[in-house]
Write a structure and sequence with these properties.
Elements (H helix, E strand, L loop, with lengths): L13 E11 L2 E7 L4 E5 L6 H13 L18 E10 L2 E10 L5 E4 L2 E2 L12 E4 L5 H4 L2 H13 L3 H27 L4 H41 L5 E6 L7 H7 L1 H7 L10 E6 L2 E2 H4 L2 H23 L4 E4 L8 H11 L7 E5 L2 H10 L4 E7 L2 E4 L4
Parallel strand pairs: 3-13, 3-14, 8-12, 12-13
Antiparallel strand pairs: 1-2, 1-4, 4-5, 5-6, 6-7, 9-10, 10-11, 14-15
Helix pairs in contact: 4-5, 4-7, 5-9
């Protein structure tokens, strides 16, 4: 079924106890208390169910899952938004605060202490989101697949995250220099080489870590796919470096003439891809919609298992509108899976409270139900 991690340390208990919002997306104000296990936001589409999941995502990643521009998550014409949450972690309570004002730096605090760098927070409260937008992993550009593996590694490897941040900074500087060369009709090989050196140092470390990660992650992914589909189809995740068979420096030198014309760096870990295959063929080109859905779900469940194994903590699991994206058989399998003791706290959005309540009742799991309507949330668990 699912690969069981042989953790040398016991799992830490972690769950979100409370969430409060002010002026976040379509919420003027809201305050919610959660079950340690399963919580479900129900209501019609467009009422704000997914926005609650996004607020929870903010508490783990200091940013939105859906919109990278913080100010665009402020409600209507208001001047700010605030998200606050209280986590229970191995008996201790941590209070988190995220505040965004228009045209000002975002504030993020843990127990009233503001972070100097938001990267320090990533991975403390691990989380996995399963969303309809996951389809971009298959049909979207390579940046979606890189972001997928980067987001997993960054939750447990601070060095990797710092290298990634540094690489992107160096890349921006190199691209600015290439643009300057084109505009001024000049060239400075010495300055360019300085940025190349930094790009290679950070890029080599990132490349090695990604390949190492995929080797271990692939085992979990394969086992999850077999469980979901009850099949023995062959699935694969293959890393495809943009440098091909060249070392990093040779690849940069070979692409230099092209880069000067394009005014940006065309090779490097920012251009690498991951090839998704099914029975040796391209998933995007040859797999059915059902096979693609199973593939995506297996990827996300493997992400959960991998982070849990590394962090010794069951991540929060956020399931957005999953019922309508899976058939009845796969959905019931998912419900049975997340109801097990293998998983920690789960948040689900669904349009039918009766349906979700019945499914978890069959799994003998209590669920806390919230009804969402036009940015208002009501606890209907005992209604």
């Amino acid at each position: 079924m699912i690969l069981k991690a042989n953790n040398p340390l016991p799992l830490q208990l972690m769950y979100l106890k409370e969430l409060s919002l002010i002026n976040f997306k379509n919420y003027e104000e809201a305050k919610l208390s959660f079950f340690p296990k399963v919580n479900c936001f129900t209501g019609n589409n467009g009422m704000g169910k997914t926005n609650l999941l996004d607020a929870i995502y903010y508490l783990s990643f200091c940013k939105s899952f859906f919109n990278a521009i913080d100010s665009q998550n402020i409600r209507y014409e208001q001047g700010f938004f605030v998200i606050q949450g209280s986590f229970e972690k191995d008996g201790d309570t941590d209070d988190l605060y995220c505040g965004v004002k228009r045209n000002q730096k975002k504030q993020f605090k843990r127990n009233k202490k503001e972070y100097e760098r938001l990267s320090e927070h990533i991975g403390i409260y691990p989380l996995v989101m399963i969303s309809p937008s996951d389809s971009e992993l298959i049909v979207g550009g390579s940046e979606y697949r890189r972001k997928f593996i980067d987001s997993i590694i960054s939750q447990y490897d601070k060095v990797y995250l710092e290298k990634l941040i540094a690489y992107n900074h160096v890349l921006a500087q190199r691209n600015a220099l290439l643009k300057q060369f084109r505009q001024s009709n000049s060239f400075d090989s010495v300055t360019l080489e300085l940025w190349d050196d930094q790009l290679i140092i950070h890029g080599d470390g990132i490349l090695k870590k990604r390949i190492e990660f995929l080797q271990e992650f692939s085992q979990l992914f394969t086992q999850n796919f077999e469980y979901i589909t009850d099949s023995k189809e062959t699935v694969g995740l293959h890393y495809e470096p943009s440098t091909k068979d060249k070392d990093y420096r040779t690849a940069l030198m070979t692409a230099l003439a092209k880069d000067r014309v394009l005014e940006h760096t065309s090779v490097g870990i920012h251009r690498d891809d991951i090839d998704f295959t099914l029975n040796g063929n391209s998933l995007k080109k040859f797999a059915s919609q059902g096979q693609q859905k199973s593939y995506l779900l297996a990827l996300k469940l493997a992400q959960f298992e991998f982070i849990k194994k590394i962090k010794h903590t069951a991540p929060l699991l956020l399931l957005d509108d999953v019922y309508d994206k899976l058939d009845e058989h796969r959905f019931r399998k998912l419900i049975n899976l997340v109801s097990s003791n293998t998983f920690g706290q789960v948040f689900i959005t669904d349009t039918h409270s009766e349906r979700i309540n019945e499914l978890f009742h069959e799994a003998n799991v209590d669920v806390k139900l919230f009804h969402v309507e036009n940015g208002t949330v009501n606890d209907i668990s005992h209604a």
